[in-house]
Design goal:
57% of the residues lie in helices and 3% in strands. It is built from four helices and two strands. Strand 1 and strand 2 form a beta hairpin. Helix 1 crosses helix 3 and helix 2 packs antiparallel against helix 3. The protein is globular, with a radius of gyration of 18 Å.
């Protein structure tokens, strides 16, 4: 198995695993005192802003980012990872099961936006 930074590459990672690793990471560094819901939310918003900056002047971007350099893709990967990690940590600190909440939200959205015979486009699950 190939490793990168001590972690196996190209495998599915659960939100629970991320949550556990983040909690351990914060605990051994004494950062728990700073990880209040408010502080984590503000950090999350800052990271979303960094993702926005990457896209700010690119106009419409094709799926798969075919015209992006590997450096640009790596930068986006890092910033999206920051967003995910803060989101997972925020949910954990708030005592929420983010994975279950997301699945429940998809079911609610399916009920709210049922498929009809006239639907020709995909609707968002993010409402």
């Amino acid at each position: 198995m190939e490793y990168s930074n001590g972690f196996p590459r190209k495998r599915d990672v659960s939100l629970q695993e991320l949550s556990k690793r983040l909690a351990e990471f914060a605990e051994v560094r004494g950062w728990d005192q700073y990880h209040s819901p408010r502080n984590l939310l503000l950090a999350l918003v800052g990271e979303v802003g960094e993702v926005s900056e990457i896209f700010q002047w690119k106009g419409e971007v094709a799926k798969g980012l075919p015209n992006w350099s590997s450096d640009d893709k790596e930068h986006l990967e890092e910033e999206l990872s920051d967003v995910l990690l803060y989101l997972v940590r925020l949910a954990d600190v708030c005592g929420l099961d983010l994975g279950q909440a997301a699945l429940t939200k998809i079911v609610k959205n399916a009920q709210k936006y049922p498929v009809t015979s006239t639907d020709h486009t995909t609707t968002s699950t993010c409402n």
